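A brief tutorial aside. Many learners find it easier to grasp structure tokens once they have seen a single protein encoded end to end. The record that follows does exactly this for PadR family transcriptional regulator. Read the sequence first, then the structure, and try to relate runs of similar tokens to stretches of the chain.
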Amino acid sequence: MIFQIGSALLDACVLSVLEREDMYGYILTQNVKEVVDISESTLYPVLRRLQKEAYLVTYDQPFAGRNRRYYQITDKGREQLAMYRKEWIAYKSNIDRILTGEEKQ
């Protein structure tokens, strides 16, 4: 995709994926990569920031002799995601209007 993704939109994508279920980093990256070109090295600072803002918490689960760190959305993260969704609807509507040449209602 040629369009750049901003940090707020990336945050919204991560929170949205985690709203469905808890995930560990690699699987989370694969889910986000389905719609956004992102690497694990880009995603982990995002996860740390979201955790610092209390939008996510982590927990470890043993797997094949090691621990996997899982990410889980918090209630505060759900509230933030709801705000992102509301903002996205308005933003998308405005961009669609400009790109399609529609008149403002």
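Self-check: DSSP finds four helices and three strands in the chain. If you spotted this yourself, you are ready for the next section.
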